[in-house]
Amino acid sequence: QVQLVESGGGTVQAGGSLVLSCAASGRTIAESAMGWFRQAPGEEREFVACISRSGGSTYYSDSGRFTISRDKAKNTVYLRMNHLKPEDTAVYYCAAAHVLGDSAYYTEARWFNDWGQGTQVTVSS
Fold first, then answer.
1. Distance CA 96, CA 20 (A)
2. What's the pLDDT tens digit per position in 21-31?
């Protein structure tokens, strides 16, 4: 099992940027594909980004504004969000998928085994 703790959320003005961090413990994230999801009140949990085990592949719901990365030494995953919009407001969750391959195409929440508690991102207009 991987324990995940998100941080970096907060309130930002529309057009601004935020970098979210996901610190892992208990197991190296090198064994997992890592994903970011978000959920707004009354809405379904939505895929944001995924990075493969090796870090060599990434996949996004909005590749023009978001960038996912991983730091092996710090056992941490990041999500950089640029040009933020009010509709980006949500709780953002980090998740780990225990997989054997090196795909980044994990877009369904049910495919992920471990989840953080989430961090709130609020984008003001």
1. 15
2. 999 998 888 88
